[in-house]
């Protein structure tokens, strides 16, 4: 009888004080991916959180007055609707995204911005803690467990950024991981996938904390592999990784004393120049890993090229600062001018390689345009523009290498190679210009251009055959181009 009374009392309590349910991870992941974090746009996500909070306050009639602002406190007795829990959750998300926005600044946060960043993370921890407490009182068991994982992650993020208590950060990240591992065993398939993905996102931060505590023999190369992973939970880890890599480069750069280029050796005395050149050379090695021409990998290669350009530009800036501050010692100035020329030439080479990669992407789109109706049509004029850039960059590189006195055989050979590539690019440009005229219905002009493109391709092939080490791939491409010119001319 007593048991029946207790059960009826529990039923009454459930009706008076209902238990709310929120799938926290699924809710946040959906909001993040739809509102900016798919592309790591924290500003857009922060604005979404602000707009979402405004709608929640208005729908609950929980506004803070029209006159003097007085924030209404959300307590256990206030939570009569699940939307009150959403308010607290989005307050934490807004503070966190604001902190991450500061972390994503191009040159990193300065001292003042870093203080503000930590303040926003503390605010995120405060709201996440309140969310966890309210879920424990008003949510069901699963919601309460997810809220505990959420607050543990926020606390770990704050400690991770503070660079102080690595053991506490490790404990919080591990707690969050353990909860998500447990939650990943239950629920629907979508929820299990999300939980497993979250565990994978947390793993690099845990391993980094173990590394800092001294309980792991993690190598820098392993850190780099983890840095290739994606996810909002990994962005702070990537920022730390950049610091680690900068320290490693500074140590490794001490062994680099000169820069070799076309038979010349130029001494490097400036430590910053050495670090920048070393960074660029490491990125150039990464390019060799992408052999296939998969569209996703091609985009990754283009992103690496941008980082290479940035590194070499930093090196040139340091060299030119040294030149401006150099004494009247002509030998020092000659060495710095030679180093500047060498770095500029390598930068020009990489620019041409990047533009050739862009041409590969554009050609694949141009050839598919008739088959893929949903894909943007690649016009021949766009390829003409890309070849204009290649011709200009090849000419500039040839002029740069040819400048100066006492050129060695390697420089002469390299300049001739640049001019030969320029001829190949002119043949390709002429072919796509002819395509453009043909599309516009100007058949006479198109016919003449196809003939000229074939003539340029044949001339380039003859010159390539006369070189010491002919590029067979380039010769094959020119043969295909010549055949296409003939076929297109006959089709007019």
UniProtKB/TrEMBL annotation:
> InterPro entries, alphabetically?
SRP68, SRP68-RBD, SRP68_N_sf
Per its UniProt record, what Gene3D superfamilies does this chain match?
Signal recognition particle, SRP68 subunit, RNA-binding domain
Segment forming the signal sequence: none
Q: Which UniProt keywords apply?
A: Cytoplasm, Endoplasmic reticulum, Nucleus, Ribonucleoprotein, RNA-binding, Signal recognition particle
What GO cellular component entries does it have?
Answer: cytosol; endoplasmic reticulum; nucleolus; signal recognition particle, endoplasmic reticulum targeting
Q: Name one Pfam family in it.
A: SRP68
Q: Name one GO molecular function term.
A: signal recognition particle binding
Where, subcellularly, is it found? Cytoplasm; Endoplasmic reticulum; Nucleus, Nucleolus
Record PANTHER family: SIGNAL RECOGNITION PARTICLE 68 KDA PROTEIN, SIGNAL RECOGNITION PARTICLE SUBUNIT SRP68
Protein family per UniProt? Belongs to the SRP68 family.
Provide the protein name.
Answer: Signal recognition particle subunit SRP68
Supply the source organism for this entry.
Answer: Asparagus officinalis
């Amino acid at each position: 009888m007593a048991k029946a009374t207790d059960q009826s009392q529990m039923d009454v309590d459930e009706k008076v004080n209902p238990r709310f349910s929120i799938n926290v991870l699924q809710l946040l992941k959906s909001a993040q991916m739809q509102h900016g974090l798919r592309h790591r746009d924290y500003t857009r996500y922060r604005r979404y959180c602000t707009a979402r909070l405004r709608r929640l306050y208005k729908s609950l009639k929980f506004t803070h007055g029209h006159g003097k602002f007085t924030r209404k406190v959300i307590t256990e007795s206030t939570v009569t609707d699940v939307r009150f829990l959403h308010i607290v959750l989005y307050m934490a998300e807004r503070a966190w995204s604001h902190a991450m926005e500061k972390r994503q600044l191009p040159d990193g946060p300065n001292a003042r911005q870093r203080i503000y960043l930590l303040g926003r993370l503390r605010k995120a921890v405060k709201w996440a803690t309140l969310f966890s407490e309210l879920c424990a009182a008003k949510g069901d068991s699963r919601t309460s467990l997810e809220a505990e994982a959420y607050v543990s992650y926020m606390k770990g993020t704050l400690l991770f950024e503070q660079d102080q208590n690595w053991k506490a950060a490790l404990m919080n990240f591990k707690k969050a991981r353990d909860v998500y591992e447990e939650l990943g065993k239950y629920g629907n398939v979508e929820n299990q996938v999300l939980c497993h993905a979250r565990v994978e996102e947390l793993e690099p931060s845990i391993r980094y904390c173990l590394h800092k505590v001294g309980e792991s023999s993690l190598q820098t190369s392993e850190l780099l592999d983890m840095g290739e992973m994606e996810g909002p939970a990994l962005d702070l880890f990537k920022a730390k990784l950049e610091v680690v890599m900068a320290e490693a480069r500074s140590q490794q750069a001490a062994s680099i004393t000169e820069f070799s280029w076309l038979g010349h050796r130029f001494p490097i005395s400036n430590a910053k120049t050495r670090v920048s050149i070393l960074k660029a050379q490491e990125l150039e090695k990464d390019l060799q890993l992408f052999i296939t021409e998969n569209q996703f990998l091609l985009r990754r290669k283009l992103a690496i090229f941008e980082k290479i350009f940035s590194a070499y530009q930093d090196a040139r800036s340091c060299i030119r600062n040294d030149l401006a501050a150099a004494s009247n010692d002509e030998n020092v100035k000659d060495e710095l001018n030679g180093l500047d020329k060498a770095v500029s030439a390598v930068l020009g080479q990489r620019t041409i390689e990047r533009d050739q990669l862009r041409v590969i992407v554009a050609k694949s789109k141009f050839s598919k345009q008739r088959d893929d109706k949903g894909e943007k049509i690649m016009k021949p004029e766009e390829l003409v523009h890309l070849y204009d850039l290649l011709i200009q960059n090849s000419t500039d590189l040839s002029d740069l290498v040819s400048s100066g006195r006492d050129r060695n055989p390697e420089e002469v050979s390299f300049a001739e190679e640049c001019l030969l590539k320029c001829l190949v690019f002119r043949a390709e440009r002429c072919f796509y210009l002819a395509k453009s005229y043909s599309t516009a219905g100007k058949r006479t002009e198109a016919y003449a251009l196809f003939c000229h493109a074939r003539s340029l391709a044949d001339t380039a092939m003859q010159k390539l055959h006369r070189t010491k080490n002919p590029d067979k791939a380039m010769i094959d491409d020119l043969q295909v181009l010549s055949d296409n010119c003939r076929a297109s001319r006959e089709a007019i």
